[in-house]
Amino acid sequence: MTTIFSAAGTTTGNTVPMPTTPLPPAPMPAAVLTGGRILADGVTVGNDTHTTGLNNNDVVIGASGTGKTRGYVLPNLLQCEGSMIVADTKGGLYHRVGPLLESQGYEVQLLDFTDMEFSPYGYNPMSFIRRDEMSGGPNGMDVMALTAALAPDELGGDVFWDRAARMQLSALVGYVMEAMPEDERDLHAVTHLLVNHTLRELNAMFEALLDDNPRSFALLKWRMSTLCFGADRMQSSIMGIMAEKLDCYSYTGPYALFTNPRQVDFARMGERRTALFLNISDTDRSQDRLVNALYMQALQTLCRTADAAPGGRLAVPVRIILDDFAANATIPDFDKVISVIRSREIAVSIILQSVSQLEAMYGPARARTILNNCDHCLYLGGQDVATSRYVATKAGTTVNAVLDMPVGDAYLFTRGSRPRQVRMTRPESHPRYAAMLGAMRRHGPDNASMFDADILGDTGRTDRPSPRHPSGQSFA
After folding, report:
1. Is there a single domain that holds both residue 327 and residue 446?
2. Each residue of 33-78: pLDDT tens digit?
3. HSE on the CB side for 436, CA within 13 Å?
4. 0.85 exceeded by the pTM?
5. Which residue ranges does the record annotate as region Disordered (predicted)?
6. 201 pLDDT higher than 80
7. Do 390 and 448 reside in the same domain of the chain?
8. CA 309 to CA 312: how far, in whole Å?
């Protein structure tokens, strides 16, 4: 019989027991290597949803410095379970865990959004747009899903202008897919199409598509946009909004990312164990929408791959670790997608600083839907009163008790079980921690010295930036 939780600790009534003075963490038993996720010190949960009756989605909430990386992300990377897409906003997980994962048989990839010209792997979102079998043009749903990620509705603003710009952006993306050679189909080309032609020239270029394809998706979208927003002055205003949204793809860095010969392959992640690290800046947010387009396309591609597989499930489960989840742009329809991925062997780990942060990005109703679709919730502490009130309500305790929770403790909520106050795990106690350090040192003394055990710290941040990575670098 599979044991879901390896530690006792159920409570009586609605009171969460106060912890005793903690002892230094003992090494985790080797049993953790047999599978599952580590949620807290001595607490693991299995990944077999048929056995647990739960989904594998986790939400981890904690203010900066509470140990979200050390206490949750790093220990679960060391578990070497399935394929992973990891948001590495601290810049150190790839170097620290990558060598170990490669020694465990993983294909380890780095997509560097902070230094795109030197990223070992590339990402061209337009390469994930399928062809429509009837018209021979681009799949309209794929185009509109991509433009929704690149030009989302801004919460609190007038959505008319955002949606008008999105309609014209769909037309431009469609034009590049229909009229340009395959090796030029990227957002850099879309940007140049917009900025290098007048409105009159664009009208003529789109109308010329009719000669080759009477069912042209691009021409249909362009005509719809000119019909709805016919005045030239309004059209110019919309094109100005579009130019602002595309400006971050106009320079050499994104072009290098789009045209890199080694491109990420999301479908392959469901067939072979792969670890894709996304090096994302937590100070420069200019590429957030491109990153969220990646998340959206990864989820769509993995769902389609699962639907085409025997049993409707991925052969290799895939987990997406969304660090700093609510600090950037929204992933389109994420509140809907998260509710349907369990049966396909796809799961997400959502890392937040507060519930208020999530509500600000998605709105209260969609934020509740996202939280309700995570059967495991860890709260590591913080000063946000609204989040403390949310946790106190779930735990059956007072807001003050939540705010006064000792450093290193956490509240653990699992659907169908009583809440528990637990101690966070330390990665040093994981059976593979020593192997991780050894793999780093074999990779090179610079790598080992950069990431000695005491450098990563509770925040997970390194004290120096990541070095540039020549294309094709391997840990071997």
Report:
1. yes
2. 557 999 999 999 999 999 999 999 999 999 999 999 999 999 999 9
3. 24
4. yes
5. 454-476
6. yes
7. yes
8. 5
- Cα–Cα distances (Å) from 348 to 101, 158, 202, 320, 323, in that order, read 19, 31, 42, 5, 10
286 within domain boundaries: yes
Residue 162 lies in a domain: yes
Rounded Cα–Cα distance for residues 138 and 178 (Å): 7
Write out the two tokens for 323: 């660090």
189's tokens: 């080309």
The pLDDT of residue 25 is above 70: no
Q: 363 and 342 in one domain?
A: yes
Give, for 402, the enclosing helix (H) or strand (E): helix 399-403
431-470 pLDDT tens trace: 999 999 999 998 865 555 445 443 344 444 443 344 444 4
Q: Which amino acid is at 397?
A: T
The b/e string for 177-200 (b: 16+ C-beta within 10 A; e otherwise) is bbbeeeeebbbbbbbebbeeeeee
Task: Please check whether residues 80 and 229 belong to one and the same domain.
Answer: no
93: in domain? yes
- Over residues 107-126, the pLDDT tens digits come to 999 999 999 999 999 999 99
Q: Rounded to whole angstroms, how far apart are CA atoms 339 and 366? A: 12
Residue 209 located in a structural domain: yes
Token pair, residue 388, equals 């403390």
Nearest to 25 by CA among 411, 406, 426: 426
